[in-house]
Amino acid sequence: MFTANKITIPVNPILTKPIAKPKSWFMTTPLDNFDREGFQLSPIEQEYYQANNVLLTDKDISVKKSGEDDWNAVLHTWFRQDIQHENIYLDHSYISVRYRFEGEALDQLLYHARSRPELYKIAYVKSKFGDDFCVDWCNEDGVYELIHWEWDFYDYSALIRHVIHCEHALSGFNWEEYREKLTNLPAGIADRASDEYLSWQSQFFGMSKPFRYLKCV
Questions:
Q1: 52 Cβ partners below 8 Å, 6+ apart?
Q2: What 3-state class would DSSP assign to 146?
Q3: Per-residue confidence (pLDDT) for residue 70, from 0 to 100
Q4: What is the C-alpha to C-alpha distance for residues 41 and 82, in angstroms, rounded to an integer?
Q5: pLDDT at 69
Q6: What is the model's pLDDT at position 59?
């Protein structure tokens, strides 16, 4: 039902080229909402990504928490839905990347941070990776997530191992049989909003929990 796209993820995501901005710009550019969504980039980071020829998301998506119309982040579309189903829908599937600073780009940030210490949180950002997969069940009786996981990684090799694991788990997966199992909650699980349910749900895909978030600083 779902097929993984062939995408290229940088092994060592770094930004080295400085940006052509005056000191006054570094002193006034907004830095709030940093690390809001884990991979959402601040305006100053977006400038560095552009200067280093790093493309951001290939499509506009809704950021429900912020109310914005798009998400400025490095997002690679991971899975696509090749076989349509009346009730099963792939809501989203991405592999995300956040870059760290080195070389002249880092030197530039550290120079201006001496006058504006808040810039240190940009200068010392860690590179990290993440995979995100969400499938919904929709019919006249209601809508709920069949599965949703978001896992972050600092290490490229760990990401690749997880991606391979997930792609293997999804290959030939019987979604109808799985959905039937979800209709009868096991003992000790009260509802689909509970942490116990989400963890139980994740075990069908070989994961101990659905979400693992890592800070970028």
A1: 15, 16, 17, 99, 105
A2: strand
A3: 58
A4: 31
A5: 46
A6: 52
HSE-CB for 209 with a 13 A CA cutoff: 7
Locate the domains of the chain by residue range: 2-212
pLDDT of the residue at 64: 45
What is the reported pTM? 0.88
Instruction: Report the chain (217 residues): mean pLDDT per 10 consecutive residues.
Output: 95 98 97 81 94 78 46 91 95 96 99 98 97 95 92 98 97 92 79 84 94 93
Helix, strand, coil percentages for the chain (3-state, nearest 5): 30, 25, 45
Q: Check if the beta carbon of residue 127 is closer than 8 Å to that of residue 99.
A: yes
Q: Which residue's entry shows tokens 């090799």?
A: 157
Cα three-residue angle 118-122-126, rounded to 5 degrees: 135
- 3-state secondary structure at position 158: helix
Q: Where are the alpha helices (DSSP H) in 63-191?
A: 103-113, 120-123, 156-170, 175-183
Strands 14-15, 100-101: parallel, antiparallel or unpaired by DSSP?
parallel
Give SS3 for 138: strand
CA distance 170 to 10: 24
Return the H-helix or E-strand segment holding 50: helix 43-51
* Site of tokens 């809704």: 62
Q: DSSP states of 66-94 as a string?
A: TTBS---SEEEE-EEE-S--SSEEEEEEE
Q: Is the dihedral of CA 211, 184, 139, 174 positive or negative?
A: positive
In this structure, are residues 45 and 76 in contact, taking their beta carbons and an 8 Å threshold? no
Q: What is the helix (H) or strand (E) element at residue 198, kind and residue range?
A: helix 195-203
